[in-house]
Amino acid sequence: MSKLLLIGIKCWLFSMTRVMKNRITIWTTITSSTSM
Question: What sections of the chain are H helices per DSSP?
């Protein structure tokens, strides 16, 4: 049970970090395009 929970938390953290990275890249592209 605890092992399954750990795997779930790891997957959730991975997805969250991926979303954050995507948001950062999108934000940087938007700011660069607007500044240009």
Answer: 2-35
